[in-house]
Specification:
The complex is a heterodimer of chains A (about 375) and B (about 240). Chain A is mainly α and about 375 residues long. Chain A folds into 2 domains: about 280 residues, ABC transporter involved in vitamin B12 uptake, BtuC (Orthogonal Bundle), CATH 1.10.3470; about 100 residues, Orthogonal Bundle (Arc Repressor Mutant, subunit A). Chain A contains 16 helices and 4 strands. In chain A, the strands form 2 sheets. Chain A has a two-stranded antiparallel ribbon with strand order 1-2. In chain A, strands 3-4 form a two-stranded antiparallel ribbon. Chain A starts with a helix and ends in a 5-residue tail after the last helix. Chain B is α/β, with parallel strands linked by helices. In chain B, about 30% of the residues lie in helices and about 25% in strands. Chain B is built from 9 helices and 9 strands. In chain B, strand 6, helix 6 and strand 7 form a beta-alpha-beta unit. The longest helix of chain B is centred in the last third of the chain and has 16 residues. The two termini of chain B are about 30 Å apart. Classes of the chains: A mainly alpha (about 375), B alpha/beta (about 240). Chains A and B meet through helix 6, helix 7 and helix 10 of A and helix 3 of B. The complex binds adenosine-5'-triphosphate (ATP) and magnesium ion. Magnesium ion (MG) binds next to helix 1 of chain B. The site of magnesium ion has 4 residues of chain B, from helix 1.
């Protein structure tokens, strides 16, 4: 690997971490859209900042642009407060206006500004290593690395200091307020960090990748854990993984790095969405099927318990009486047999002692409306699940 | 002997988007009562509590807790929000939610330690939820979630407790467990204010009641003011509930 390659991957990874941290809280606050709004509406801030500072990497420009991000949030909330439109509509109203102001400013001054809309939206990670930071003549590395590195250090510091405040105000803003942790301060703090990160990252990776890096890793992590700290760690790992694998994908396909990283983020989410152990689609569908079969099993056992008449319990007539198709009757019968709930003698089905006990308990729970308990019972009784 | 006033509300008006939902409320809550706030849906019960707790900014009026503004008395007050007001899919455990009750006394930045954890475990024990301490909160039943909220308030070790519909969606045994804890709090000299919907149980559970519907209709001892007249004024329709039996 060349030095430039290592630097690019390092920058991409740091951006990924810096985005994953505020991103986790944005996802939990159901504010994914706001990061999209911020990433677009900082454009006029960047352009105006550039007129003033003539340097895309100046800290002043970052602060000015971040301020535009905060203004976006304030405007969105103001419009929303009027009660005339919903939040998503308010977002849709605000950021295109700010973004287009930025576009017009660029177009009007295209000649003397080396800035174009494509670069803002997509960035160009491949060029990041060329813009070096020189301190008294010594090359200390790419400027983007220093910018995003500083932002990351601040973000981690704030996260450690205010983790409990962020957690309580995200989970229960009312409680946070009553305890004296102003949800407004935390909200705008989070918005500031998100804005600064977006601005600091956009030059290297572009606005679209910033949004993807904020939302996708956190949304993926959310599917895998029920612990906030772990969710943060997973988000960070997914971000880094996508950054590095995306870089190599781009290298291999000779494609845009930002585009490839976004693709990796999407693939990662899709994989987890399908295969996550609890919240994944396949697990959910499997559980539904299992539940359906097991409800039928209980129905079947109840039928056996209620009918002593041998005709009702004859293997060949079962499907007529209980009105099930052959395949279904067979599945259920097999499941009951495997679990030792029934025995079949002379083609007559009877409950075993275990089956009888299970059924009696199940009825009890059903009539006392404690259906949830049946799930625990299944764990005790079943050798094989449906 | 004159009773101390725990919470005093004067001329309180609260509005959402400039539309008042509470009009000119005056309310005195004496120390040591177990008080129900009753009123129809949308009457402003939750709004009243949120305003007292400084969660909402009123457009007029003032509130004091033991004679001082709420901001100075935070440590004296605990709050159980309406259950639906939080996201139960939030990635956290029962124990962690109860620990949040200790955050107020910790203040900014300081993190909870062993002492806070011990207090949270004790509170979980009191509401019978110790076995569930490591459960993710979405995997708790509605009644269990309510008990977790109650434990979180208990851990605050306050003098005044505000509870927004703690009996919402709980079964009979949980309701009894909760009311016993509330009665124990009153016995210990605490003031407990509960938004309550089941009018039948008001005389049995509470000794003080406030009728609210945008305006304050009445407030006082249950035995004096809990009658058909006030119920009718509060609920609009001609309210006849045989509460005496
Ligand atoms: N965030 C809000 N924005 C606008 N209006 C609101 C908001 N919250 C509540 N309201 C309105 O204020 C009024 C009072 O609401 P509040 O939640 O205090 O009623 P409540 O008495 O607690 O009702 P419930 O018994 O249903 O809990 C209602 O008309 C409601 O529609
Ligand atoms: Mg309410």
């Amino acid at each position: 690997m060349s030095n430039a390659q290592i630097e690019i991957q390092l920058i991409a990874s740091l951006v990924a971490i810096a985005c994953a941290i505020p991103g986790t809280f944005l996802v939990l606050r159901k504010m994914a859209m706001i990061s999209d709004a911020i990433s677009h509406s900082i454009l006029p801030g960047i352009v105006i900042g550039f007129f003033i500072t003539q340097d895309l990497n100046s800290p002043l420009l970052i602060l000015l642009a971040a301020l535009t991000g905060i203004i976006t949030v304030v405007l969105v909330e103001y419009i929303q407060k009027t009660g005339l439109v919903k939040e998503d509509t308010a977002i849709g109203l605000v950021f295109p206006i700010l973004f287009s102001i930025g576009v017009i400013l660029i177009a009007k001054n295209a000649n003397d500004v080396h800035l174009d809309v494509d670069a803002v939206l997509l960035g160009e990670l491949a060029f990041a290593p060329f813009d070096r930071l020189m301190i008294s003549g010594v090359d200390v590395g790419p400027k983007s690395l220093w910018i995003i590195g500083s932002i990351l250090v601040i973000t981690i510091g704030l996260l450690i200091a205010f983790f409990k405040e962020l957690k309580v105000s995200t989970f229960d803003a009312g409680l946070a307020a009553s305890l004296g942790f102003s949800p407004a301060i935390l909200h705008y703090g989070l918005m500031t960090v998100s804005s600064v990160t977006t601005v600091g990252a956009f030059d290297a990776v572009g606005a679209i990748l910033v949004v993807a890096l904020m939302i996708a890793p956190a949304a993926t992590a959310y599917l895998l854990t029920t612990n906030l700290k772990r969710m943060l760690v997973y988000s960070v790992c997914f971000g880094i993984f996508s950054a590095i694998s995306g870089y190599w994908l781009a290298h291999w396909l000779d494609a845009s790095i930002a585009g490839s990283i976004t693709t990796m983020l999407g693939l990662l989410f899709l994989t987890v969405y399908l295969f996550a152990p609890n919240k994944g689609i396949i697990a959910v569908l499997y559980r539904e099927k299992q539940q359906r079969t097991e409800v039928l099993l209980i129905t079947f056992l109840l039928h056996l318990k209620n009918h002593n008449d041998e005709r009702e319990r004859h293997v060949n007539h079962l499907n007529e009486h209980i009105n099930w198709q052959k395949v279904r009757s067979k599945t259920i019968l097999d499941l009951a047999l495997k679990n030792n709930m029934i025995s079949i003698g002379n083609k007559i089905v009877s409950l075993t002692e275990k089956g009888d006990e299970f059924t009696t308990q199940a009825i009890d729970y059903i009539i006392t409306n404690e259906d949830a308990q049946i799930e625990h019972m299944k764990d005790d009784f079943f050798l094989f699940r449906g | 002997m004159k009773q101390k006033i725990a919470v005093q509300v004067d001329d309180l008006t609260v509005a959402y988007n400039y539309k008042p939902v509470l009009w000119d409320i005056d309310l005195e809550i004496p120390e040591g009562v177990l008080m129900a706030i009753v009123g129809p849906n949308g009457a402003g019960k939750s709004t009243l509590i949120k305003s007292i707790l400084g969660i909402l900014k009123p457009i007029a009026g003032s509130i004091s807790v033991y004679g001082k503004p709420y901001e100075k008395q935070r440590s004296l007050v605990a709050y159980v929000p309406q259950k639906g007001s939080v996201d139960w899919d939030f990635p956290t455990t029962a124990l962690d939610v109860v620990m949040m009750g200790t955050y107020g006394s910790l203040g900014w930045i300081k993190r909870p330690g062993q002492k806070e954890k011990k207090a949270a475990l004790e509170a979980l024990e009191k509401v019978g939820m110790l076995p569930f301490k490591n459960r993710q909160i979405s995997q708790l039943s509605g009644g269990q979630q309510q008990r977790i909220f109650l434990a979180r308030a208990l851990v605050q070790d306050a003098s005044i407790y505000f509870m927004d519909e703690p009996f919402q969606g709980v079964d009979a045994s949980t309701e009894i467990a909760i009311i016993n804890i509330l009665k124990a709090l009153r016995k210990a000299g605490k003031t407990v204010i509960v938004v309550h919907h089941d009018l039948q149980t008001v005389p049995e559970y509470f000794d003080w009641v406030t009728f609210l519907n945008v305006k304050k209709i009445a407030t006082g001892p249950v035995k004096d003011i809990f009658n058909d007249d006030n119920l009718t004024k509060t609920y609009g329709i001609n309210y006849k509930v045989s509460i005496q039996e």
